[in-house]
Amino acid sequence: MSSGRDWRLAAHYTYLDHLSPAELAWEFLRRNPDYRRDYGASAGDARNQVELPEPLILRWGLVFRDRSGSAGE
C-alpha cells in the first residue's frame, strides 16, 4: 500500500526551512494525534465558526493574533 508521497525524501521538507517559529509549531501540532483527537471532540461542528472552544485553546496553548480591522484598533 502506497501513501503517494515518500516521507523519506528530503525534498518534501525543504519548505520547513522557510517557516516562522509559529508556522513550524503548527506543523508539529497539527500532526499530534492527541491534538487531533481533542480538536475533533471539542470543535465538532464549530469548524466554520470564528472561535474555538476555550478548553481546547487553554489545553494546547493556542494563541491567535487579532485580525486586521478588529475592534482593538
Judged by helices, strands and strand pairing, the structural class is: mainly alpha
The tally of helices reads 3
* Net shape: extended
Strand content bin: under 5%
- Poorly predicted segments: none
Largest sheet: none
| Integer average pLDDT | 78
Q: How would you characterize this protein structure?
A:
This protein has 73 residues and is mainly alpha-helical. The protein is 37% helix and 0% strand. The mean pLDDT is 78.
In short:
With 73 residues, the chain is an all-alpha fold.
Keywords, separated by commas or semicolons:
extended, mainly alpha, 73 residues
Which secondary structure elements does this structure contain, and how are they paired or packed?
Blueprint: H1 21-29, H2 33-43, H3 54-60
